Amino acid sequence: MKDPAETKCRRKVCTALAKDSETEIIANVDIGWGNKLFIRGEGCGLSWEKGVPMQNIENHLWYWECPTPCPENFQYKLLINDHIWSLGENLTANRCTRNSIEPSF
Description:
Radius of gyration: 14 Å
Structural class: mainly beta
CATH architecture: Sandwich
Number of strands: 9
Largest sheet: 5 strands, antiparallel
Oligomer: single chain
CATH superfamily: Immunoglobulins
Order of helices and strands: HEEEEEEEEE
Distance between the termini: 36 Å
CATH topology: Immunoglobulin-like
Helix content: 10-25%
């Protein structure tokens, strides 16, 4: 038998992600209690100078959607509290798709 709390959480995530969106980024990462995940980049309204907060939709699941239609793929990177950069090279978001990642810090 399924745990009712788990079913409710999964429904909440599905509802939050069910929007028609041009480009979405979903990060599965544990950044510790009380921290926030930010996104910076080039394109889709992002900048490298100041991050945009992502929405925490479940324990380790963070969500961001491009507020405008993206004319092309774009590069981005995630930061904890808009201060600590994720490891590795810049990531590329494919326009018109849901981009799922598991960043490391």
